[in-house]
Amino acid sequence: PVRLNLDLSTNMNNTNKRSPLLAKYKVGCDKNGKLVAIYIELYLDAGNQPMFEGELLAFIEGGYYSPNFTLKCRQVRTDKLFAGTVRAPGQVPSCLVIETVLEHLTKQAQQDPVMLREINLIEEGQHRLNGTPVKNCTMRKVWDRLKQTADVNTRQEDVDRFNKSNLWRKRGLSMTAVKYDMYYLPAGLPAHVSVFAADGTVTVITGGVEMGQGLYTKVRIDFISV
C-alpha cells in the first residue's frame, strides 16, 4: 500500500477545478427595469466524461424572477480531465452568470443596478425555473433589512461624489440577491439521533459538512436544550 500526502497546489492540479463555462444570453426589460424575458445558453467543458449539471439548473435564476426564462445547457466533450464539483458545485458559476446578465442590462437600459435587482426579486407565489411555486419566501424582507442596516443609499451617494471628484480612482457599491433552497438533502438524511439505553450515550449524525461553522456544536446544544 502507498499513501500520498500532496500539497494543495499539486492536489488541485490532479483533481481539477470547476468546469469552464461559456454563457450566451439575451435579456429584456420594460422602461421601469422590470424583467420581461431572459434567454441563456450554457456551454460546459465536461472534459473526458459527462458531468452533473443539475446544480447549474437549480441556481441559474438567482434570487430574481422573470416571467419568461429559457435555459439551454450543453456539455462539450474535450480531451481534458473531467472537472471536480468543489463545494456548492453549481451555485457559484450560476450566480456569476445571472449577475453578469443583470449588470449588463443595467448599463444598456441605463438603470440603477441596485434598484433593478430590487424590483425583480422573487416573490411569494411566483414560480421557479423548474415550475415549482415559491413558498415561505422572505427575499424582499431580508433585502429591505440589509439595505437599511448597511445604509446602502447613503453609501451610494458617497461613492457617486467620490467618482465625480476623482478622475483616475473610482469606487463602486453592489448589492445582490442569493437564493439557496432547503430541498438539497434527500428525504430521511437531515439528521439521525441515536440514544443508547446501556449508558445513555447520544450520537447525532447530520447530512451537513462541518467546515468550521460549528455544525456539530450547534446540533449538540440544540439537542441538550430540548
TrEMBL record:
Top-level taxon of the source organism: Eukaryota
One Gene Ontology MF term: iron ion binding
A Pfam family assignment: MoCoBD_2
Gene3D superfamilies in alphabetical order: Aldehyde oxidase/xanthine dehydrogenase, molybdopterin binding domain
Residues of the Aldehyde oxidase/xanthine dehydrogenase first molybdopterin binding domain: 1-121
Aldehyde oxidase/xanthine dehydrogenase second molybdopterin binding domain span: 146-219
Name of this chain's protein: Xanthine dehydrogenase/oxidase
